[in-house]
Amino acid sequence: MPSPGLNEITLSVTESTGENLAYVKESFNGAQIIRLDEKKPLEEIEGIIQEIRKFSQVVYVEPDLMIYPPLYAK
Q: Among 3, 9, 35, 64, which is most exposed with the fewest C-beta within 10 angstroms?
């Protein structure tokens, strides 16, 4: 269940950025996980993150980045 205030944050960020945010789930440590409706370049995501950080109820925001193992030449 989303925490109180999350709906207000997602609606405000959607209004200011034009990006649709949707609640996904609560993580094991209580963090609220939200998603965009489509994949975006990191530069665009950083702008959305800055909008989310404006809210005093937000403790931290970070993108979910795909991490790949390094390729080693033999």
A: 64
